[in-house]
Amino acid sequence: MKYRYGGKEKRLAFGVYPAVSLKDARENSEAARKLLQAGTDPGETKKAAKVQTAIETANTLQAVAADWIAHQSTRWEPATKARVLASLETDNFPTLGSRPLVGIRPSEVMKAVQKMEARGAGDQASRLLQRIKQVYRWAVTHERIEANPMLDRMPSEILKPREVKHRAAQSNRDLPGFLVKLNAYQGDINTVQALRLLMLTTTRPGEVRGARWSEFHPDESLWIIPAARMKMREEHRVPLSRQALQVLEAMRPISGDRELVLPSPFYSSKLLSENTFNSALARMGYKNTATAHGFRALFSTVMNEHDRSLRDVIERQLAHKERDQVRATYHRSTT
User: Fold this and answer.
1) Which class is 61-158 in CATH?
2) Cα-based distances in Å from 299 to 141, 195, 198, 210, 314
3) What element of type H or E holds 5?
4) Which of 177, 182, 175 has its CA nearest to residue 299?
5) Percentage, residues of the chain above pLDDT 90
6) Which pLDDT score, from 0 to 100, does residue 138 have?
7) What's the pLDDT score for residue 44?
8) Model confidence pLDDT, tens digit, residues 61-72
9) Which residues contact 165 (CB under 8 A, 6 or more apart)?
10) CB half-sphere exposure, 282, CA atoms < 13 A
């Protein structure tokens, strides 16, 4: 089609016959003339459509999710990054990963997570849905897509309500018996001492597993965990009891010349595995009745029952972030 736009003569091709029929060519020609009448260059419109198609084709769910993970991973622990990637690779990429974001209908995402829920993986389905929503939101922010079709899709309106199950934790009545079993446990000494330090400091399992000698200050009875290793990305100062200091003294002949206080018994430069604590608890007879993380709940329960006025002390010891944002602005003490 020959036409003039902006005082210049131009040509517009609609395709090759017979791949493009005469009927289609006439319809395309008519559409181009309507664009001209509206003051738009049909040739530039066609070029822009080609560019947009190329962009959409390149921005598949898997490609954009990979960029989102790379962006987020600077504030995630390596284990968190691996967990997020594994959930997408297992339950999402095989069916929707190669599709352009703009071509995926919300109903397709809904069906995918509901299928997970139907097989009994309701928690994983909810987390996957949230991650996909975050990928779409990130894509809009970084102009990878123009609109977010997942914006109003709420997990509570897609998935069935679930009873929240807290991590198994012992009661204070069980604690004396547990300590007897821990003392008699014939497993690896690194694991035993790690469990002791976990209980005596009420830190998170990952914080104990990654404990470095350089973080401890025995003369001050203090363990300073750097912000990079904390869930809330804030430095955490942990007072050390006499018993906690004894754990360090017990480990000094074993790992005192290394970086990690409680390394893997098989690879001295690597951390104890994530499942080490709970596996040890299971061998001691506490399978499904106690978890490593549950010691934090036990500490909180006992201390709150003892004296509720110690709320600030308890929350600070657990390294919980202040939820009252106004109060958090003014309360910045580290002790």
Assistant:
1) mainly alpha
2) 42, 14, 11, 21, 8
3) strand 2-5
4) 175
5) 39
6) 93
7) 86
8) 999 999 999 999
9) none
10) 7
Helices (DSSP H) in the chain: which residue ranges? 22-37, 42-58, 61-72, 78-91, 106-118, 122-141, 155-158, 175-184, 189-201, 205-209, 242-255, 276-281, 294-306, 311-317, 325-330
Report the relative pairing of strands 216-217 and 2-5 from DSSP bridges: unpaired
In this structure, what token pair is assigned to residue 20?
């493009």
Q: Write the CB contacts of 322 (distance below 8 Å, at least 6 apart in sequence).
A: 315, 328, 331
Residues with active-site annotation: 204, 231, 293, 296, 320, 330
Given CATH 3.30.1330.10, say whether it is the number of domain 175-330: no
Domain boundaries for CATH 1.10.443.10 within the chain: 175-330
For residue 222, what are its two tokens? 């203090």
Count of Cβ atoms closer than 10 Å to residue 201 Cβ:
24
- 127's CB contacts (< 8 A; 6+ apart) are 87
**CATH 1.10.150.130 domain span(s) along the chain:** 61-158
Which tokens in the block code for residue 335? 């002790």
Question: What phi and psi, each to the nearest 5 degrees, are found at residue 237?
Answer: -105, 120
User: What tokens appear for 75 in the block?
Assistant: 């504030």
Q: What is the pLDDT of residues 102-117, one digit of tens each?
A: 889 999 999 999 998 8
Per-residue burial over 74-89, b = 16 or more CB atoms within 10 Å of its CB, e = otherwise: eeeeeeebeebbebbe
Question: Parallel, antiparallel, or unpaired for β 222-225 and 216-217?
Answer: antiparallel
Cα dihedral sign, 288-293-297-303: positive
- Integer CA distances (angstroms), 136 to 32, 159, 220, in order: 34, 19, 48
